[in-house]
Structure formats: C-alpha cells, structure tokens
Write a structure and sequence with these properties.
Length: 286
C-alpha cells in the first residue's frame, strides 16, 4: 500500500521533511603512560612511526618474554586472591599456566623464544616466591584497570599489583619489570618508571579514593641483589609529573612529531636507528 518513491506525491512529501544536520562525533583520545606518554617522551619521531603511521617495529622476542612473565604472575596473584591457593598448589600449576600463556603469545605474535629465553622467564617467575611469601596476606588486587576522564582526553592505566598497607588504611602499588635493575641508568629508565607509578598513584587516589602510601618497582630480572626500589609519593613530584604528562598529551594531540630523542643512549636499541638521522643539519624526516 506504500506509494512508489518515484510518484509525484511521494516526492512532494519528501520535500516537506525537515532533516537536521549530522554532527561529527568527537571521541576523546585515550592515552596510557607506557604506550603513549613514555614513548613520546623518549622520542616523538618513534611515537609517530609506531602510532601515527601504524608501523610497529618487529621487537617480538623481548615483548613475548615480558608478557609471558607478566601474564603468569597475574595467574599466580589471581589464584591467591580469588581461589585461595596455597604456595604448594601454585607451584603445581605454574608450569601449566606458563605453557598456556606461551601458546597464546606464539599465536598472537607469530614468534617463539629460545630455550634459554624461556628458562630465563621461568627463573624470573620462580624468584617471585620470596615476595609473595612475605606479602601473602596483603595482596588484594592484580592487573587493576583504571581510567580517568580529563578535559580533552582520557588517561588509562593498569596497575600490576595492589597491596594493602599493614595497618589496612591505605594501599601500596607494585609495578613489575621483566628486566634487571639498571644500576647505571644512562637512558633515564628508572626516572621514567617512577613517573609511571606516580601516574598510577594519581589514578588510584582520584578514581578509587584510596590513599597510596608506598610505590614499588620490582625488577624481576635482577639477581643476587634486592630487586625492589621503594619510595613514598611526594606531592611536589606528583604535581610536576602530572603537569609534564598533560603537556605531552597535548603535544601528541597537536601532532608535534618532528623531534628526536634528547638522550642518545635511548637510540642504541631503537628499531629506527638505521633510518633516523639525528644530525641537526640533516633535513631528512619520516
């Protein structure tokens, strides 16, 4: 019973309809510290290559090893928190968790670890025993995802481990690093890791209304020495970190990419080092 759209009556009716214009939707960009803020702070040109041009360098082996350790530690912490497993039960399941995680990573990255690299990952996971024995009763959350809405972007973070303070009136944040502790920190990695924890501290206090008492960097690849660096958050450093983060986020949104790393030491293992000319008199750019 509908009239043909070709009929004069239908065309006349269509002309009487008042259509509103379609507004272009605006989605606030989402920034994480590790992928966005830290990468851009290390080298804006590297950030442009990875995220603006979507050309991810092939660094899969080191990525797989770190993810294998992180995911298996997540399995261990979740077993303690949600399933109440004993340490003996965790030991019985660890190898199976590792194998399952490794299979998933092989499929995701189409790359494998050498036997030596796999064993190194297993040793890093085994070294975690002393930490969980010491802090068993205080482990309360693992891989906590927190987002905070800013004026023109979203700040997103994921905290590896949250501990309750001994008095149960606050929390402590732990960030796992699969590398060894850099005793000679030419590239400023420890400072960058500390800033990352300050960002997580801000997210936790603003979003979850929990007071953060202590921040811990746990270097799982460290042998013979203490693998943990601990420090108490300072409001002055927190304010500076957040100000610098906001400036970096706005530089990314402005597509300010035509700069290179300030520290040449960070170029040593960069996937772009054969393409990027850092000489000031060179006009070559990506």
């Amino acid at each position: 019973s509908l009239p043909s759209w070709r009929s004069p009556q239908a065309r006349a009716q269509l002309k009487t309809i008042a259509f509103s214009s379609i507004k272009t939707p605006y989605f606030k960009p989402i920034f994480t510290y590790t992928a966005d803020i830290d990468t851009y702070s290390t080298c804006p040109r590297l950030y442009k290559f990875r995220y603006a041009l979507q050309a991810e360098p092939v660094e899969y082996r080191s990525t797989i090893k770190g993810l294998l350790v992180h995911q298996t530690l997540e399995d261990i912490n979740r077993a303690i928190i949600k399933e109440g497993m004993t340490l003996q039960e965790i030991h019985e399941h660890t190898d199976a968790w590792m194998r399952e995680n490794y299979k998933t990573l092989i499929m995701a990255y189409n790359s494998v670890l050498s036997d030596e690299e796999y064993q190194q990952a297993r040793e890093q996971i085994a070294s975690y025993d002393s930490f969980i024995i010491e802090n068993w009763a205080r482990i309360c959350q693992t891989e906590q995802r927190i987002s905070l809405l800013k004026d023109d972007y979203v700040l997103d973070g994921q905290i590896d481990l949250i501990l309750e303070t001994p008095d149960r009136k606050g929390v402590e944040l732990v960030d796992f690093k699969s590398s060894a502790m850099p005793y000679i920190d030419r590239s400023g990695k420890i400072e960058a890791y500390a800033r990352q924890l300050y960002v997580y501290c801000h997210l936790m206090e603003e979003r979850c209304q929990k007071k953060v008492r202590t921040l811990h960097l746990y270097f799982l690849g460290t042998k013979n020495d203490s693998p943990i660096i601990s420090f108490t958050p300072k409001s002055s450093y927190m304010a500076k970190t957040l100000t610098d983060l906001d400036k970096t986020a706005h530089r990314i949104m402005a597509k300010d990419f035509e700069h290179t790393a300030e520290r040449s030491a960070s170029c040593r293992f960069c996937a772009l080092k054969w393409l990027c000319q850092r000489d000031e008199d060179s006009d070559w750019q990506i």
